[in-house]
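Figure S4 source data
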Amino acid sequence: MLGRGIREERRRRRLSVRDVSRLANVGLATVHAAETGVVCSLGTYVRLAEALHLHAEFELADPRRREPLTRRAADPVHAAMGEAEATHLRGLGFTVGIDEPFQHYQFAGRADLVAWSTERAALLHIENRTRFPNIQDSFGSFNAKRSYLGPELAARAGIERWHSETHAVVALWSAEVLRTLRCHRSSFASVCPDPEDAFEAWWRGDPPAIGRRSILLLFDPIEALRRGRRRWAVLRDLAGVRPRYRDYADAVAAIQL
C-alpha cells in the first residue's frame, strides 16, 4: 500500500523516478523497490514522503481486530453538521459544495462545505469540527484553506475574484469542545478574530458585500433547522454558555434518536 501511494503521487505530480530519487536523496533502485511493494526501511519511506510533500503515517495494528476503514472513517456528527448547513444554504438559493476539492501548486485539500453567490461574488467556507484532538493541525488546515481555497473556487465559478470571503470554523456545541476553547481562548481568537455578523448574514441569505473574515462558532446541528432555540454561540460567550452535548458520544446518541 505504501508503494502504491508513492507511485500514484509521483505520477500525479508528473515526476520521474529519477526526480524522486534526487529529491529524496535515495538510489534509483530504492525508489523502484518501494514502488513495487518491496518492504523498505521507515527512514526510506519518510524520505520519499517528504520528497513528494506527503505526511508519513504508520500504524501497528492486529488485522484480526482492525475495524473496516469505512466504519472508522464514518462520522455521523460531522455529517449531520454539514447536512444542516447545506440544507439551509441551498434553501436560500446559494450554490453549495460538500467536501470540495482544491489544489494550490503542491498543496491539495478538501473543504468541508462551501457556498457561493456568483451574482454577489461572495464565498462562504465552513470547516466543521466535532473535536480538536490536535489544535495546531486544526489551525494549519484552516489557514491553508483560508489562503488557497478562494482563488481556485473563483476560477471554477467563472469570476475574477470574490468581493467577500467568509471563513468559519464551526465546532460542535459540546462540553468537550468548550473545554478546549476555554483552555486556548487566545489562540482561537488569533486565528478567528472576527464577530459572527458575516455568518449570520449568510444564514439570512444576505452575504456581506465586501471584506474577508475569519469566524469561530459553536453549532448545534439538531437545533440548526428549528426556530426558537439559539443555533450557535461565539467566543465572547464562553464564560456563560452552557453545552448542548456532554461530548462527541452524547451528540452521536442524540443524532441517532
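Figure S5 source data
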Amino acid sequence: MNIPTQTEFRNHTLIVTVSTDDGRPVLDRRAYESLAKTFHEAAVDDEVRVVVLRGLAGCFCLGGDFSEFLDATKHQRLIAAVTDMFRTLATFPKPVLACVDGDAVGVGCTILFHCDMVIASGESTFRVPFVDFGLVPDAATSILAPQKLGYAGAFRFFCLGDTLRAEDAKALGLVTEIVAGGSVEEAALGRARQLAKKPVAALLQTRDLLRGDTGVLCDRIDREISLFQQALQDDVTLKRLQRIARLAA
C-alpha cells in the first residue's frame, strides 16, 4: 500500500499516528479523511494484518479541532469526514490496537472503544467532556461504552465527564494493559506481532464473531452524528463552545 507520512509498516503491522498533518494532537477534517483512507486501504491489503494507533510524544489525542466546530461553513465537509471515519472504523475487519501515553480526550478517547486492545502508560488519562460542551458522544460509543464499562460506568464517564486515570480505566475495562516503565509503543507492537503470527482466517473470523453486528454500530453512528450536527446549530451550544475555546487559547 502507499504509506502516508503519519504511518509506518513493520512485520505485517501498520502503525498509524493520530494527529493533524501539521503535527497537532487533535483531529481536523483532513485528519479524519486521512485516517479513513488509510483504514480503507489497510482493509483490503493482505500484507496488513494488524493496525496500531499511536499518538504524539506524551499525548495520544486531545479531541476534535474546535475551530471547525465554530465555523458553520466547514460543518458539512466535517460531518461527512467524521461519519466516513467512524463507519470505516466500526466495520474494519482486522485487529486494531492502541498505545496510549498521555491524554486521550473526546474523540481521542472514543476512538479507543473500537480498538481490540488498549495498552497505556500509568500516566495516561481518559476524558469525554461531550455533555459539558453541550454535545452527545460519537463513534457509536452510546452502544460500545455501556457494553465495555457497564451502564453505571458509562453514565458516570460520559455524563459526569470524570477524568479516568489509567488504573481506573483498566478496572472499568477501557484499558487492557498498563505498562509500568518501558515503551508503551513497543509493548503494543509486541502484542501486534503475536496477533500477526496467528492463522489469518481464524483470527479474523473469531474477531468478527466476537464483535457481532457492525450494522447496528453504523446506524448509531448516523444517529449520534445527526444529534451532534443539530447541537452545532444551537446558539446556546455555540456560545458555550466559543467560551471554552477562549479559555483554552
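Residues 214-231 form the longest helix (18 residues). The radius of gyration is 17 Å.
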